[in-house]
Amino acid sequence: MAQDLPAAVDTEIAAEQSRPILLFEIYLDSGTLRYSATNVNVVFPATGGNTYYAKTIGMGNIQTTAEGQIESVSLQFDNISQDMHTYNVAESFSGKQIIIKKVYRNILTSSTYYREIFNGVMEEPNRIDKTWLVVNAINGVRFQRRVLQKYFQKECNNVFGDANCNRDGYADLASLKAIGTADSGTTTTLTDNALTQAADYWKFGKIAITISGSVYNRFVESFDAATDTIAFDAPLPTAVIAGSAYTLYKGCPLTIEACKLDGSISYGPSANNIANFDGFVHIGEIMNPFGEIMNPWVK
Q1: CATH 2.60.40 occupies which residues in the chain?
Q2: pLDDT tens-digit profile of 53-81?
Q3: Distance (Å, rounded) from C-alpha 247 to C-alpha 218?
Q4: Nearest CA to 46 among 104, 110, 131, 93?
Q5: What fold is seen in the domain 177-249?
Q6: Per-residue DSSP letters for 61-99?
């Protein structure tokens, strides 16, 4: 349906120096997501309006009517911060409304100062990876389909210790932890003779250290059982001192080898957790005529 535009919007469209901004409103069950295809957040209208958060957004495969109205469009939303992945896991996009508005940076003062360029419904996302979420939107009946809710990768898609990983109780971070105080340390290590576990038991884990009232969080690079010393992945701004309190959690590299816990390594789950491994371990593997696995990347 044709939209009557305010005179101020008509004037801005005609201006050579107009600065258009695309605003995206996605109406999910849990609430409305508002994004702007800019590098800074936009408040519209400028006083008392909604914040549209800056996001890299692409539009492609645009189909239009004879009158120039958009019938369907493919939208790409950046997923660098994994926010779109979180929404995709928790929500259904299918049938949810999406509105695209064009506003002008010089006239954001009124809620009527916009041009609606698309108002339709979304299908389920057809691609989700560590960079982008891609979803099609149409004016009309949507397709019913669901994107795979995990990354196609060899590494496990679970977070070590989460409900899926700990389904059988072998990654219970409530018990796979140590609380103590340091005997000594540096900016890159902490030593406590109460840590008597096997070599690298704490490798890939996390540690929270309190030094002079400040809490520092680091990943564990290694654990030397001979000296009871934890090495951090990055230096602290100040050295660990005797008496520094810490909480240490076991970790996992999210590999199939760690999940097997066959005795060759000490990090990872407390027992064989292969039943809950959630990765695609055979990516890149091909079989020769004799049933042997070959690596296609090795000449």
Answers
A1: 177-249
A2: 999 999 988 887 776 678 889 999 999 88
A3: 11
A4: 110
A5: Immunoglobulin-like (2.60.40)
A6: EEEE-TTS-EEEEEEEEE-TTSHHHHHHHH---TT-EEE
